[in-house]
Amino acid sequence: MDRIKALELSGAEIVVRCLQEEGVECIFGYPGGAVLYIYDALFKQDKVRHVLVRHEQGAAHAADGYARSSGKVGVCLVTSGPGLTNAVTGIATAYLDSIPMVVLVGQVPTKAIGEDAFQEVDTVGITRPCVKHNFLVKDVKDLAVTIKKAFHIAQTGRPGPVLVDIPKDLTAQDCEFLYPDSVSMRSYSPITRGHAGQIKKAAKLLLEAKRPVIYAGGGVILSNASDRLTELVRLLGVPCTNTLMGLGGFPGTDPLSLGMLGMHGTYEANMAMQHCDVLLAVGARFDDRVIGDPEHFAQNRRKIIHVDIDPSSISKRVKVDVPVVGNVDDVLAELLKLAKAEACGNAAALDDWWRQIAEWRARNCLRYDRASSIIKPQYVIEKLYEVTGGDAYVTSDVGQHQMWAAQFYKFDKPRRWINSGGLGTMGFGLPSAMGVQLAHPGATVACVTGESSIQMCIQELSTCKQYRLPIKIINLNNRYMGMVRQWQQFFHGNRYSESYMDALPDFVKLAEGYGHRGLKVERPEDVEPALREVFARKDELVFVDFVTDQTENVYPMVAAGKGITEMIFAEDL
Amino acid sequence: MRHIISVLLENEAGALSRVAGLFSARGYNIESLTVAPTEDKSMSRMTIVTRGSNDVVEQITKQLNKLIEVVKVVDLSEAAHIERELMLIKVRAGAKEREDMKRMADIFRGRVIDVSDNTYTIELTGDGHKLDAFIEAIDPALIVETVRTGTSGIGRGNRVLKA
Fold first, then answer.
1. What is the pLDDT of residue A1?
2. How far apart are CA A421 and CA A441, in angstroms?
3. Is the predicted ipTM greater than 0.90, yes or no?
């Protein structure tokens, strides 16, 4: 609070100055009545770049993709009423995946609140269950400190979106501007350091384990702990499996990696989870798509160590033996220290364990028909991996293509795999790719999508044109809502109720209509050359429409509510 | 099992709805909920009576702690505590019932706080069982209206919940 002379600024200018003070370089938004003063203040400066999306859902997803790929707080700005309601899907998406985000929303003038004014909704009420916290600012004097609190809450503890609802009249009022350097809140002080005694117990269990597994989730990525995790896994020489949200937290090409676990995880990962004697869960939450039926999971005895920053994640679905509440990176650093000091015991037992795992691996559970004359979606992802050297930022939508991307693109680095894991939001892929590309202007960004998902936020092709975002859209077009069709095939007697996408657009023409290049690929032998051509075009967006096998399914699969070893394989059908 | 959860939270608009929303969103049950500011006007004290297994109640306290406006949470029923509830009950008290009703109120250490030609309004304080017992002790046909505050609780002795 030690600024020499306080400035008089309008509320709108204060909002923009706060963003500057936070070092925000880029925000995503859409103007409207309640935020006109803020847009005017944005116009008069050039430090914060505003990216105009075509729908507010796109603004939230873009801010989200920006945050996931950069580790910074993503920021979006929308107007009251429909502006906010349109953004809600994006806010909930970020909430379920614990993404640090600040959402600035215009509100009708203070006096009009509660009168069903034009474009008025109860923003704080609507968003309460899908934000980490939200504020309605009632006095322009509180504006700066509220925004400071929002940034603080969004990125500390378990991260999440924080919303600030700003009535229009406040943005026109003048007020002294003081931006605090820090905030302290008596009701909010997240634990960061893990309990030393618990960490000691955890290290002992791990070192004495005969059949250990490390199960790493999105928390590893959020807390920038992948280096430490990688060091620990390699030091101990134990198998590591990553969740959908955790891919890249441990290198996917490392021989110690079992790949992804869960509903569409590998056989070896799920078997190892079920049959291990010590399980170290880091930044993961044992959710239904990961361990399936908790009762089935509990049938095998094992000691569970659970490291998580959120106490409410611990013992929620699965009872754990050694809970460690703390920042994943800090706890892993302590664990590493202890592990280095002790001699790693059980080499013989570990050898047996790896022999067992090799047997499970030999099942080759991800195999598919490589001789097919129709393009197999898995093949496209494999080639995408090769052509991009495994080094692209890959966003995805939701469904079969998402699972294939997760299975076949071996992510070696964190923050490269950007997908909506918790909420499962179709429409996420393209706008989040915009956020990724803006955070990493020179990088290769691919959006793996399907013909159903891409249409949910297709309007953002126009934003990509305006800002010249050279995203490569990999559309796995099977003319079905593939995952819905797969479930209908398995569990609803092949009754494909409303899952066929009739009257699809010509995606090549559609891309061209938005001013981009479009390409259709129909034969397996054309896949690789097409990808090579597309990724050579560094400066333009290319939409590649791959006509893929309509009947292909994602294997292996654990049916909802089943145990994780009760898997369905390609050869079972 | 029945649990009494005591919450100290910021006295801010919307804090109550965050707590109520949490219970409904996660399917926790609320038997009663009382809330009012403390001697420090910036803070409110809330008492929630809920039912659930130990696992569920552990989750409830963790989830409450996660709310940004919640300062402290304690499960009062984990140790010695006192609970009280206030009931205002309006009963029919014509010439025929008057004496009996007054005697019944005395037995339960209630007070008649309002009288009309044909009614008494009785104030009664105690734990929930005592209030239930009073209701059961009188002829249901005579009950005109019942208002209960829900349980408030506090730890015994030196056990305190402070910011």
1. 47
2. 25
3. yes
> Of A57, A44, A43, A109, which Cα lies nearest the Cα of A88?
A57
To the query of whether residue A5 is one of the catalytic residues in this protein, the response is no
Question: Is the residue at A121 inside a domain?
Answer: yes
Total number of residues shown for chain B: 163
Structural domain count of chain A: 3
Across the interface, whether the CB atoms of B21 and A129 are under 8 A apart is answered: yes
Pick the residue of A142, A158, A187, A317 with the most B CBs within 10 A to test the interface with B by mutation: A187
What global pTM score does this model have?
A: 0.96
**In chain A, count of helices (H) and strands (E)?**
22, 22
Residues A236 and A287 in one domain: yes
**Domain assignment present for A155:** yes
- The string of pLDDT tens digits covering residues A17-66 is 999 999 999 999 999 999 999 999 999 999 999 999 999 999 999 999 99
C-alpha R_g of chain B: 18
**Mean per-residue pLDDT of chain A:** 96
Q: Is A409 among the domain residues?
A: yes
pLDDT by residue (tens digit) across A227-262? 999 999 999 999 999 999 999 999 999 999 999 999
- Which residue segment(s) compose the domain that A459 sits in? 377-554
Q: How many CB atoms are located within 10 Å of the residue A340 CB?
A: 13
- How many residues in total does chain A contain? 573
Residue A570, in any domain of the structure:
no
Over residues A277-281, the mean pLDDT reads: 98
Other beta carbons less than 10 A from residue A65's beta carbon: 32
- Find the Cα–Cα–Cα–Cα dihedral B132, B138, B141, B142, rounded to 10°: -110
